Amino acid sequence: MLKIFFSIAVIMTSISSSAHKLLEFGGVSGGGGNVISATPPVAPTDSETAEELIKKSRQFVNLYLGQKSEKFQANQMNDQEHILYSKIFAGPKNILNAVEKISPDIEDDGPCYDYENKPVDASIANRPKNKFCISAHSISQKVDHQEIPIQSAALMIHEYSEIVGTTEEEAVTLQTQAIEELKQMDLPPLEH
């Protein structure tokens, strides 16, 4: 019984420590996310190439969130969207501030891990302050080369939204919507 209590205390301390690092932005949820509805690769992309695509895809995060913020500020969203997006855009601790201050820590040798030490494609758990993990290794194994930028951008939006206080369900909704809408957008070529 004492071992169980000690184990729970260690886990809670670890979660509390990671959560404290991100409290500046307003919240923490499950801590991990995965790619959604990705086209599998014919052959895995090498991790270095995937890492470069992930780094470059941050411009899609900024473009997408900038456009969504403009729609939110102009009251051009339906009630359900407005409620969800108010969680990430309203107030001083919003997702745009998080994107500016928190950067992805790209893992190229393996997966990221959530608060329960389960492997995931991205996570806010167990990382230094102002960082979150996104796994080039995992994404390179699961996602077709052409889709890596959009899937990575949407997954980063998932993680940033968790940082500012969304639930896991809300983060997945935002991620899914971002994938669908980014695929429809006339995106600029990735900058070098």
Describe what you observe in this structure.
By secondary structure, the protein is α+β, with helices and mostly antiparallel strands. It has one domain (2-184). Helix content is 55%, strand content 9%. The protein contains 7 helices and 6 strands. It has helices at 2-22, 47-73, 79-89, 95-101, 136-142, 148-163, 168-184; strands spanning 32-33, 103-107, 112-113, 119-120, 122-123, 131-135. A 4-stranded mixed beta sheet has the order 1-5-6-2. A two-stranded antiparallel ribbon has the order 3-4.
First and last CA, distance = 56 Å
Determine Rg (CA atoms, Å). 17 Å
Strand content: 5-15%
Biggest sheet layout: 4 strands, mixed
Number of domains: 1
Structural class call reads: alpha+beta
Low-confidence runs of at least 5 consecutive residues: 1-28
Question: Topology of this structure?
Answer:
Elements: H1 2-22, E1 32-33, H2 47-73, H3 79-89, H4 95-101, E2 103-107, E3 112-113, E4 119-120, E5 122-123, E6 131-135, H5 136-142, H6 148-163, H7 168-184
Parallel strand pairs: 2-6
Antiparallel strand pairs: 1-5, 3-4, 5-6
Helix pairs in contact: 2-5, 2-6, 6-7
Question: Can you summarize this structure?
Answer:
The protein has about 190 residues and is α+β, with helices and mostly antiparallel strands. It is about 55% helix and about 10% strand.
Question: Which features does this protein show?
Answer:
192 residues; alpha+beta; disordered N terminus
